[in-house]
Amino acid sequence: MKMISTLVRIGILVATIFIFLTVSDSSNWEDSISGDSLDNLDFATSMLVDWGFLVILIGILLSMAMVGAAYLVRDERKENLIWGGGDSND
Q1: Which of 14, 22, 38, 58 is such that its CA lies 20 to 30 A from the CA of 47?
Q2: DSSP secondary structure letters along 7-24
C-alpha cells in the first residue's frame, strides 16, 4: 500500500511539472487569433482541441480530490450505521 501511495505521489508530481512546463512555455502563447478579441468559438476550440489533454488531466485530478474529500468526511460511528434510528443499548 505504501508503494502505491508513493507511485501516486510521483505521478502527481510528474503531471504537475509537465503542466507547469507546458503552460510556462512562451511558444504556446503565440498570437494565433486573427482578431483583437476572443470569441466563444475560439475559446472552445482552444480549450477542447489545443489544451484537451490538460483539461482532462485536471478534471481527473479534481475528481480524485472530491472522492478523497467525500471519503474523509463520512461518518462510520456505530450509532450512525444501525438501521432504524432509535436508542440502542448495545
Answers
A1: 14
A2: HHHHHHHHHHHHHHHHHH
Chain-centroid distance of CA 35 in Å reads 32
Number of Cβ within a 10 Å radius of residue 10: 10
Phi-psi region of 73 (alpha: psi -120 to 50; beta: other; left: phi over 0): alpha
**Spatial CB neighbours of 54, under 8 Å, sequence gap ≥ 6:** 19, 22
DSSP characters for 36-65?
SS--HHHHHHIIIIISHHHHHHHHHHHHHH
Compute the distance between CA of residue 45 and CA of residue 38 in angstroms, rounded to an integer: 11
Q: For the segment 51-80, what is each residue's pLDDT rounded down to a tens digit?
A: 888 888 999 999 999 999 988 887 777 766
pTM of the entire predicted model? 0.41
- Determine the Cα–Cα distance for residues 86 and 64; give it in Å rounded to an integer: 36
